[in-house]
Every structure is written in structure tokens, then in C-alpha cells.
Amino acid sequence: MRILITNDDGINAPGLEVMTAIATELAGPAGEVWTVAPAFEQSGVGHCISYTHPMLIAKLADRRYAAEGSPADCVLAGLHDVMKTCPPDLVLSGVNRGNNSAENTLYSGTIGGAMEAALQGLPAFALSQYMGPANFTEDNPFDAAAVHGAAVIRSVIEAMPNAGEDYRLFYNVNFPPVPAAGVKGVRVVRQGFRRGTCFGVEPHASPSGKRFLWIKGGDQRAETAPDTDAHANLDGYISVTPMRADLTAHDALDALRVIE
Is there a binding annotation on residue 166? Predict the structure, then answer.
């Protein structure tokens, strides 16, 4: 198997090392793992692409490249330049430092990389590691993802339903904020919604008196519905959520037909 990996935390991020190990296990002795990752951190960029300006790309080592762009840019670079003559069988994005459950999914560059791969017709997974008191200060806070990542991906691939001919499926996988030994299992769930919390801004003044705004997230332990990703993660389970790039609110179509 030939695998392309990317992330949004940057080419030097510890989570990318974990993803490399996961991909190497999945690819097998005869397989190949290629990396095209952002030269700098691209957290929170979602599915953006560098449509109005070019991006610099540099080869750092055999099958390892850094691009000055978003995760979606990196997938495009991987498919249409770096691996143009040897396309991948699978694209993996992550492992992100922090969860991409609930509303975080919509902002995530990790998700954006997997989404772009799906739009390009390839099977893709986004992997993220929830952080919390039980794993944040551990020597390897990515332990749950490192130990269970390859097995979860294999299980999904074996059970993978028809991906669709238009907007293909991709998979959002979040590992709970516990060491690997504390993982209770896997739950296939929908995307959650953290009620009463959202992203906002926090103003600060520089020494020169200029005003700056920091973007800040909401409470990552806010309650979500029992059959959702964040709820499963906080209960010690790995969450797997099948997704598509189709943003249509299908449940609202019939109600709106009265305006036709």
C-alpha cells in the first residue's frame, strides 16, 4: 500500500511522527509512506487552499516534503506533483494535537486535508488526539492514537461502505484524552454540538499600545448528546464519524419546497 500523510500542526509536529508510525504499520514491508506537510503550523485553516498565490515546496528527505500552504494544499501538491507518477492508495491527516470533535471539525485543517483527499476520489482519514488531565502531561500524550490508530483504520477499511461516486466518504477519528491502556473501545457516532460554548476573541495590548485579538476556543468538556463524538471521547472511547463534503441540509429540503 502507498500512503500519503499530512497534518495541520506542521512538518516538525510530534503528532506527525505518530502518524508516520501508524502509516508505516498499515503500508507494510512492501509499502511506501510519503509525507507532504505544512512548513509552518496551519491549525484552524479548515479546507482553505492557496488559490490566489503560489506555494513554495521543498524536499527534506526521501519521500518527505514541506509546503508553505494549508493541509488541503499539501494534499493537492502530493497528488498532482510529488506523487503524480505513483499516486497513493490512502491519505491520512494528523495526528492532530487536540480534538477535532463537535464544532472543532468545521475549523480543522486536519479535517480539511482528509476532505480534499475525498474530493480527489481517495479514501481518507483524519486522526486527532483529545487532550486532558489524564494524558496532557504524559511523556507521550499521543499514546492512545499511537497504540490504537492502525487497528481502527484497518477495521474501518474492512467495513467501509460504498464511498459514493460524487462526494465520497472520509472518516473523522478522535482518540480519547487517556493513555492507550485506558481506552474502552470504539464508537461509531455522529458529529456533536457543544451547547453554550463557541469560539471567541480575547483582546490584548502590546507594549507599544497596539490592540491585538487572540482567537480562543470554548470549553472542550462541554456536554454533547450521548450518541456523538465528543461524548464518546470524554467517556473513554475512540470515535469514528463518517463524513462527506456535501453541506446540504437534506432535512430542510422538503419544508422549503413550498417556495418553488
Answer: no
pTM: 0.96
Look at the block and give the residue holding cell 456536554.
223
Is residue 96 a known part of a binding site? Answer: yes
Integer Rg of the chain from CA: 19
What's the CATH number for 2-195+223-246? 3.40.1210.10
Whole-angstrom Cα distance, residue 13 to residue 119? 26
Q: Return the domain boundaries, the chain.
A: 2-195+223-246
Exposed / middle / buried, residue 181 (Cβ in 10 Å: 0-12, 13-18, 19+): exposed
pLDDT in tens, the chain (260 residues): 999 999 999 999 999 999 999 999 999 999 999 999 999 999 999 999 999 999 999 999 999 999 999 999 999 999 999 999 999 999 999 999 999 999 999 999 999 999 999 999 999 999 999 999 999 999 999 999 999 999 999 999 999 887 777 999 999 999 999 999 999 999 999 999 999 889 999 999 999 999 999 999 889 999 899 999 999 999 999 999 999 999 999 999 999 999 99
Which of 238, 228, 36 minimizes the C-alpha distance to 130?
238
The answer to whether the annotation marks 104 as part of a ligand binding site is no
